[in-house]
Write a structure and sequence with these properties.
Helix content is 37%, strand content 14%. The strands form four sheets. A seven-stranded mixed β-sheet has the order 2-8-7-6-5-3-4, sandwiched between helices. Strands 11-12-15-14 form a four-stranded antiparallel β-sheet. A two-stranded parallel ribbon has the order 1-13. Helix 4 runs parallel beside helix 10, helix 5 runs parallel beside helix 6 and helix 11 packs parallel to helix 13. By secondary structure, the chain is of the alpha/beta class. The longest helix has 27 residues. It binds pyridoxal-5'-phosphate. The site of pyridoxal-5'-phosphate has 14 residues, from helix 5.
């Protein structure tokens, strides 16, 4: 028998959303009539923007004719989409070349795969609670060490965020190489100001570190002074990689499209001291392991940058942020301690009377028939919180909040 990658065996058995699905299924089986409303997993519910649908229909027709048929495309994405994204960045004052943008099948893959190009010796820092993909992929790569009884991994450096620090992570106390930041944040729904983010950029410069900035939820920002991109801070151009997604922005969770930005100025070194562009390394990685996002999907994604597409995306976001407002205000009115929901689609709520996340999850499921996500599933500092997603329907949101 062959040996497996032992790092996979270190991962705890059940993925968060599998456990939630299991508990919900068991409850529904015992209570088939219960009007259960799902506000747990962050999946969208509104259809794709009409502009994307039309563009994809046109692309399908192109596939039907010999002259316009497309086979394998460029691994890093078609120029029409990369250029549209670069033009969009430019409007916010960020100058990027199209070849600094890599199209993918979504940012989960990119956030997870990026670790391929870094040494397994890199010291990794991440916020706690955190999007579990950053943790688990570093476990798989062997960078995380061992799982400790307190739920932390021995080699990861945790930057807790809580009400105590206003959900602004403190800089790592020890020197780290890779820093994962996600703002607007999943799961807390909170953001950093430009000045707060600059503190991390300065740290990265001083310590030769690299920031992996996940801005999958940037389209949900409503307030000024909240950066949409880490590259709004000019100094980040040589110490950051940015991940973005069409999933929540434009309903592409099932259609699949995202992108990663790696400016040519971001560099790192080999163990022999050779300095390399991470852009080149990622291109090499993608060309080897990835064969590109479907042409049809990229056409659908590019359509969100047309005037009609922009307007339709705005409507989607406004709808979800309307839900977020309802959730936030209803819970506050009911006397709960609540965060997020202003610049991101998640509302982060402290459980009453210091109940555990899972106990309160079970209470909400059984007594209110509402499915949430237990905060502890996002890391030890998420204990005592639950997450509400605003990506459901307006009717369900109103109905669920009425139950408080
Ligand atoms: N990054 C964060 C913080 C997310 O919450 C998610 C999805 O929930 C993703 C990335 C993945 O998005 P995609 O659907 O593009 O893979």
């Amino acid at each position: 028998m062959i040996n497996v990658n032992d790092n996979f065996l270190k991962l705890p058995g059940s993925y968060l959303f599998t456990e939630i699905a299991h508990r919900v299924a068991a409850y529904k089986e015992a209570n088939p009539q219960a009007p259960v409303i799902k506000m747990g997993i962050g999946d969208v519910t509104l259809p794709l923007p009409a502009a994307s649908i039309m563009a994809m229909q046109k692309a399908i027709s192109e596939m039907a004719h010999k002259e316009s048929f497309r086979g394998y495309g460029p691994e890093q994405g078609y120029d029409f989409l990369r250029e549209a994204i670069a033009a969009e960045y430019k409007q916010t004052g960020v100058d990027l070349a199209a070849d600094e943008i890599f199209i993918s099948d979504g940012s989960k893959s990119d956030c997870g795969n990026i670790g391929d190009i870094f040494s397994t010796n890199c010291k990794v820092a991440l916020t706690d609670p955190v999007y579990p993909v950053y943790v688990d992929t570093n476990v798989m790569a062997g960078r995380a060490g061992e799982l400790l009884p307190n739920g932390q991994w021995s080699n990861l450096v945790y930057m807790p965020v809580s009400a105590k620090n206003g959900f602004v992570p403190e800089l790592p106390k020890e020197k780290v190489d890779l820093i994962y930041l996600c703002f607007p944040n999943n799961p807390t729904g909170t953001t950093l100001t430009k000045d707060q983010l600059k503190v991390f950029v300065d740290y990265a410069h001083k310590n030769g570190a690299l920031i992996l900035f996940d801005s999958a939820y940037e389209a949900f920002i409503t307030e000024k002074d909240v950066p949409h991109s880490i590259f709004e801070i000019p100094e980040a151009r040589d110490c950051a990689i940015e991940f973005r997604s069409f999933s929540k922005t434009a309903g592409f969770t099932g259609t699949r499209c995202g992108y990663t930005v790696i400016p040519h100025t971001v560099k790192a070194k080999g163990s022999d001291g050779q300095v390399v562009e991470l852009n080149k390394l990622w291109l090499r990685r993608q060309c080897t392991k990835f064969n590109g996002t479907p042409y049809i999907v990229q056409r659908g994604a590019a359509a969100i940058y047309t005037p009609e597409g922009k307007q339709q995306v705005r409507q989607l976001i406004d709808y979800y942020m309307g839900n977020a407002k309802i959730i936030r205000e209803s819970l506050l009115k009911a006397g709960f301690e609540v965060y997020g929901g202003v610049n991101g689609p998640y509302v982060w709520m402290a459980t009453p009377n210091a109940q555990s996340s899972w106990d309160f999850f079970d209470y909400l499921l059984k007594e209110k028939n509402i499915v949430t996500t237990p905060g502890v599933g996002f890391g030890p500092s998420g204990e005592g919180f639950i997450r509400f997603s605003s990506l459901g329907s307006r009717e369900n949101t109103i109905e669920a909040m009425g139950r408080f």
